[in-house]
Structure formats: structure tokens, C-alpha cells
Amino acid sequence: MEIRSVSNDPLMTNMNQNKKVDSALVPPQDLTKDKIEISAKGRTMATTELSPERLEEIRNKINSNFYNSDEVLNKVADKILSDFKK
After folding, report:
1. Which residues lie closer than 8 Å to 86 by C-beta, 6 or more apart?
2. Domain extents in the chain
3. pLDDT of 37-76, one tens digit each?
4. How far apart (Å, rounded) are the C-alpha atoms in residues 9 and 7?
5. How far apart (Å, rounded) are the C-alpha atoms in residues 76 and 71?
6. Phi and psi torsions of 20, nearest 5°
7. 3-state SS track over the chain
8. Positive or negative CA dihedral for 36, 42, 46, 50?
9. Is the pLDDT of residue 5 over 80?
10. What is the value of pTM for the model shown?
């Protein structure tokens, strides 16, 4: 998004147009992208194999919006709050 001018004052407009961007203040491209970091525990869990039955159960719950239910959302919120209180 670019904002060219907020004022009709020609002096202010010219001042904004003449400003140069200090390259030291511009973050490198890779810092502006989203990143994800997976903990060691998460990596261990990812290597744990699930039975086909368990995978099917999880798929069914996702497809039925089970994880969007108030009951599940409240449990998650309670767990987050208890972790913050520690």
C-alpha cells in the first residue's frame, strides 16, 4: 500500500516525495515472511505412527466440525489459561 499525500499543502507533499528510505531500516525479505517453528516434542509426535483407524477417526471429526464445537474450544481456552497461570 502506498500513501502519497494526506495534506494539500505543496510543501508537505514535496517533503514526503523527497524522503529517501534508509536501507538499514528496511528488514531483509526473509524477515517479512511468515515462519513456523516446530518444537522437539512436536517433531517427536509427528514421527509417531497412527493406526489407519485412528487417522479415519480424526478425519471424520475434522469433516464434522467437531473441533469447532463450543466444548472443544472451551477446553482449549481453559488449557491455555492454565498454562499462562503457571
Report:
1. none
2. 26-85
3. 889 988 888 888 889 999 999 999 999 999 999 999 999 9
4. 5
5. 9
6. -105, 145
7. CCCCCCCCCHHHHHHHHHCCCCHHHCCCHHHHCCCCCCCHHHHHHHHCCCCHHHHHHHHHHHHCCHHHCHHHHHHHHHHHHHHHHC
8. negative
9. no
10. 0.41
